[in-house]
Specification:
The complex is a heterodimer. Chain A is α/β, with parallel strands linked by helices. Chain A has 9 helices and 8 strands. Chain A has 3 domains: 120 residues, no CATH class; 63 residues, no CATH class; 46 residues, no CATH class. The longest helix of chain A has 23 residues. By secondary structure, chain B is an alpha/beta fold. Chain B folds into 2 domains: 280 residues, Aldolase class I (TIM Barrel, Alpha-Beta Barrel); 96 residues, no CATH class. Chain B is 38% helix and 10% strand. In chain B, α4 crosses α6. Classes of the chains: A alpha/beta, B alpha/beta.
């Protein structure tokens, strides 16, 4: 039987579980969150562990770079992200100070690649996210990223749009980040009633005018644009979604 | 004239400026709107594939100069417009709040005289910084010929200043931009370099050259760039393939802009700044132009095959950088990792090295990927060119079931 361990959907919970597994020398065939639906061969194990706030620095031996990578892998949508984190923690015990240089280990390699993808996507979204101004002067943006970038983006806009009220909505994950000029809170969208009435579109029109003007016709290069701005983001980018409507 | 039409005219006039980077500044948000991001952020990409990170506009496209290549020259019969400082602020702030842009790129045609134009620029940016508390990125064009005290004032307000050298040689400038004087541009660069600090032009200065409007060689251009990098500590030199916007006897008539040449110049520019190459490594009097079929670094490697192959596990950092397919990131990674384990060909793939380019030039633990007799120029060159230009490869037709 494949032993699949279940954790309660937070990073702290996952790490507590991993610490427990490492301590008892148990080898999981997979680790999954509570949404997991087992197949015939899976044996689901749910342990009731008390989350330990210090577990993160204990497992990573205080290595902040490693902490960041584990956090980013956790945010990714990789199928085996939990298992990768498990093996990363396992190997950290073996190579305490040099773990991140061990590119020849599969888990290190994958973890670095995945965390790179996550930070890449988050960086892209820092540019591609578009706010609309609602009638109550609040700014509202919708994102549909592959990885869970909401917290990274919230941290970015907390500094940048300090004196504005804003909301960032990730409908695919059903979460929303809400900022009240002091702090942001990430909550489930069910707890919030949204009134998405937008203000006039003067600046949206101006922006689309600017966008259509700034490209040099003699240098038109659709492939290059697509490389930098993949099509999956277009539906949430004002100037692209509008142009698409026009051409249809 | 309504604001939409103004924006259209003044963005259209500004679009030929290549610079769009928003990196290098760490300006923080002091209880206002916006901050700078050190790595820079691209907010959109235009139909030509260039990034849009700044609201790139002119204050006005009226100009007293008559530069042959420029859309806004005095003798052109085009619609002229001018923004008021308040209009620019309103657009910038509202675009920024909606996260359309990273900041403002403000340039201008020359109105009355350089000092007057510069004062208008300063007034606009002062309004943006002090009245609207805008802390986002601002890139301003310094107007050649303006007084030093204005240059000082402007530099304290913006993140990046630039003055365009326009043409790589003095003769070219005399021919096509008779009102401009390259001394005025270098004077600005010298001033900015001498005063550069955390509060004065924190993101440094840049410049731009038009490529292909006059008949200089790539060697002329690269020599000029490398000279300016050393003398004035420029952050970037931008190359802009010449696009015929005006008809003039003195200008070449081109069907398509020399985009590949521009691409090669940028590649070489990177080699100068990050890969420790010198202009003389890349070009010489005998071959003063870049090979358009193959990139400058591979070209260098092919001309110096006697230096290769390099042993991955022992070569120095700068030797690794000379290998096509190994960049700054992968070279650093190799140096770091090889302390802990012996690197093999398989590991290189995992580390992000472009094996299909690098394999001809390296050995791993003294093993070469093929027979050593194949380490000759002809073989490697044809393979590299074929890998880059897929359209040159003979197409294999799939057999059809029904024919």
């Amino acid at each position: 039987m494949n032993q699949v361990y279940i954790y309660k959907d937070t990073l702290e919970d996952l790490l507590t579980l991993i610490a427990f597994l490492l301590k008892n020398k148990l080898k999981p065939s997979n680790i999954k969150d509570t949404r997991f639906s087992p197949s015939l061969l899976d044996e689901v194990v749910t342990l009731n562990l008390k989350p330990n706030p210090q577990v993160f620095s204990k497992l990573t031996l205080g290595n902040t770079n490693l902490m960041k990578i584990i956090y980013y892998v956790y945010l990714s949508s990789h199928e085996y992200k939990e298992l990768i984190i498990y093996y990363l923690c396992l190997n950290t015990q073996k190579y305490p100070s040099t773990i991140l240089n061990m590119y020849n280990l599969k888990c290190v390699n994958l973890a670095l690649k995945i965390s790179h993808q996550v930070s890449n996507e988050a960086h892209k979204l820092k540019g591609f996210i578009r706010f609309q101004e609602l009638t109550n002067n609040c700014l509202y943006a919708k994102i549909t990223p592959t990885n869970n970038c909401l917290e990274i983006l919230s941290n970015h806009f907390k500094k940048r749009l300090k004196n504005e009220y804003w909301l960032i909505h990730d409908p695919n994950r059903g979460i929303i980040s809400i900022y009240d000029k002091k702090n942001y809170y990430i909550i489930s969208e069910q707890n919030l009633k949204l009134n998405l009435e937008t203000k006039d579109t003067k600046y949206e029109d101006l922006w689309c005018t600017f966008y259509d003007t700034i490209g040099i016709k003699e240098r038109r290069n659709d492939r290059c644009r697509m490389n930098f701005m993949p099509k999956k983001y277009w539906k949430n980018i004002l100037e692209m979604s509008r142009n698409n409507e026009k051409s249809n | 004239m309504d604001i939409k039409e103004k924006l259209k005219i003044l963005a259209d006039s500004a679009k030929y400026d290549a610079s769009c980077s928003s990196s290098g500044s760490t300006r923080s948000n002091k209880n206002g709107l916006g901050n700078a991001s050190y790595s820079g952020i691209c907010h959109s990409f235009a139909s030509d594939g260039r990034c849009i990170s700044l609201l790139k506009i002119l204050l006005t496209n009226c100009c007293i100069f008559d530069c042959k290549y420029c859309l806004n020259r005095k003798s052109n019969n085009i619609k002229r417009a001018m923004f008021t400082p308040e209009e620019i602020c309103a657009i910038t702030i509202n675009f920024y709040r909606r996260n359309y842009i990273e900041g403002l790129f403000l340039s201008s045609g020359i109105l009355k005289n350089p000092d007057y134009t510069m004062e208008l620029l300063i007034k606009t940016i002062e309004l943006l910084r002090y009245k609207y508390h805008f802390n986002g990125y601002i890139h301003a064009k310094a107007i050649p010929g303006a007084s030093p005290y204005l240059l000082k004032k402007l530099g304290h307000l913006v993140d990046r200043l630039s003055a365009n050298i326009e043409l790589p040689t003095q003769e070219g400038l005399k021919l096509l931009a008779p009102n401009k004087n390259s001394d005025n541009v270098t004077k600005i660069m010298q001033y900015v370099k001498d005063n550069h600090s955390k509060s004065y032009v924190p993101a440094g200065q840049s410049t731009q050259m038009v490529i292909g409007a006059t008949n200089e060689t790539d060697l002329n251009i690269m020599a000029k760039s490398s000279d300016m990098y050393q003398k004035y500590h420029l952050k970037r030199v931008f190359y802009s393939a010449y696009i015929p916007v005006n008809k003039d006897k003195l200008l070449p008539s081109l069907l398509t802009p020399p985009l590949k040449r521009e691409n090669r110049l940028y590649q070489a520019d990177w080699l100068l700044r990050y890969y420790n190459f010198k202009v003389t490594d890349l070009l010489d009097e005998a071959s003063p132009n870049f090979n358009l079929l193959i990139d400058p670094k591979a070209d260098y490697a092919l001309r110096h095959l006697e230096e290769f192959p390099k042993e991955i596990n022992t070569a120095s950092y700068y030797d690794l950088l000379k290998v096509p397919g190994i960049g700054v990131t992968s070279a650093k990674r190799i140096i770091k990792s090889r302390k802990y384990f012996k690197i093999t060909f398989n590991d290189l793939k995992k580390m992000g090295i472009v094996i299909k380019r690098a394999k001809y030039f390296i050995t791993c633990n003294n093993r070469y990927c093929m027979d050593l007799s194949l380490l000759n120029k002809k073989f490697i060159e044809s393979n590299l060119v074929l890998a880059q230009h897929k359209d040159l490869k003979p197409k294999l037709n799939q057999l059809s079931l029904f024919s």
